[in-house]
Amino acid sequence: MKNTNYIFLLFVSILFSCGGKQEKKSETDTRTIFKYNEMSGVSSLDPAAAKNFENIWAVNQLFNGLVRMNDSMMVESDIARSWEITEEGTVYTFHLRGDVFFHDEEHFKGGKGRKVVASDFLHSFHRLLDARVSSATTLLTNLDRGERSNYRGFTAPNDSTFAIYIKKPFAPFLGILTMKYFSVVPHEILEFYGSDFRSHPIGTGPFKFKTWEEGAKLVFVKNENYFEKINGERLPYIDAVSISFIKDKETAFLEFMKGNLDMLSGIDAINKDEMFTRNAELKDVYKDKFIVQSQPFLKTDYLGILIDDRFKAVEYSPLKHKAIRQAINYGFDRRKMIKYLRSNFGTAATSGFIPPGLPSFDSTLVKGYDYNPDKVKELMFLAGYKEGKPMPEISLYTTEQYLDICEFIQSQLAQFGIKINISVERAAVLSEAIASSEIVFFRKSWVGDYPDAENFLSLFYSKNFSPEGFNYTHYRNRQFDALYEKAQVEQNDSIRFRYYRQMDKMIMEEAPIIPLYYDQVLRLVQKNISGLGANPMNLLNLRTVKKENDKQKM
Fold first, then answer.
1. Mean per-residue pLDDT, 461-469
2. What is the Cα–Cα distance from 135 to 137, expressed in whole angstroms?
3. Are residues 306 and 430 in the same domain?
4. Which structural domain, as residue segments, surrounds residue 229?
5. Same domain for 304 and 450?
6. 345 and 400 part of one domain
7. CATH number, domain with residue 343
8. What DSSP string runs through 489-519?
9. CA nearest neighbour of 123 among 187, 33, 215
10. Between helices 373-382 and 322-330, what is the axis angle to 10°?
11. What is the per-residue pLDDT across 286-326, written as a single tens digit (0 to 9) for each?
12. 444 and 377 in one domain?
């Protein structure tokens, strides 16, 4: 690995020395670089495309929005220094800071980034209404584009005031605005680059774009003009962020063990058998070498079932019967699955679809499914499948990453005469097939975009049928829809949470899904890293990170 390290250091040296306007660095000058790997790659650095973790993590270093979510899952100021919400809950007025500037870029006047004004948010939000630009369109269906908002849904009465109008009150709306979709972008730079803005991003964030060798390396450098300070010291503390795209898990893990990466994130990126005991504890030999960040993750992994019998594949599938869907839910031991396949990282999903970490979660009020062989046999009999009349084989579609879990379920269900054929597909192919309703039985997961159970329950609202929305099962229930709509306008949290639990119970009863486990944020971090926060949404924030005793020489 000596040659690899040499090449990396040479690359960094060239990276920071280029540019005639930079001050000349002495031989002893050093830079601190935070390095992490992204196995899945990054497809765009445009906030409008920030729909998956890979893009969101990168975009979060480059861009800011009106508000943001802190590690305690509370909405706090970002570019907006304050805001008001009208009593009826339909107008959100934001008052902007006056010291936020876009990154320097040659297509600005004089090459210097100009100050952010309210009309920039007007342009940035308006582009999100185009489904060809962003999937954030579905988050703005409640926008009031009537006369009071000049038929746009947004107004900018002056440079420091931006207002958003919605048709009816919606309690989670402020949380939605923390999503990276709603970052501010400079309209003139966006217009110049067009679709190439994905690889020429100009934002206001703590870091600015330097270079991107797609599939190899992505580098950001410190924004020397970033507006945030702590105790008088301007953020960020580190000088650069380097993202590699090593696809092989073992290779990336080895790079971390050698100190060439500062963080590994997710159980799928970590050699759990090497690092952890069966009780999810770091082995003694590593306790003095690494930091473990672990907490509940707003993510539920599940098996989904298309139940819309307008599709022929559903009409002839045993899964159209609720009894069979319930039997599968009862037919495997989630706790054993978590213990042996995930080293107890995560929690068996036996309490509905809504995960722990959300205030409406209550395992005593919402009961899901647990392993119950007797119930499986009873339900199979009720569905008409018994000795002499076996159930036809069903196909379950997944990716290589989750094959072991699907094989565990396959093995456990086989003892009840439920035969499953597992088909492994590439992630992109599988996602497209699920969204197009081409697959009846599939493995999927849902990560909370904002910390409210409405986000999880939206997967079962009939007006969100895929491919336009995320209701991949095509679940339809009038009572569910009525409760969902009532919850959206309910301002009283306790009442709204009661509606959420009622809806979760309905989903469990109809069983269009088989919840598997509630996931867990898991990061391994080098000991010389400090200031790296963690949160239930697993958002990566690097603006307050410090790195000691391992500076890269220039």
1. 92
2. 5
3. yes
4. 29-62+205-289+527-554
5. yes
6. yes
7. 3.10.105.10
8. H---HHHHHHHHHHHHHHHHHH-SEEEEEEE
9. 187
10. 160
11. 999 999 999 999 999 999 999 999 999 999 999 999 999 99
12. yes
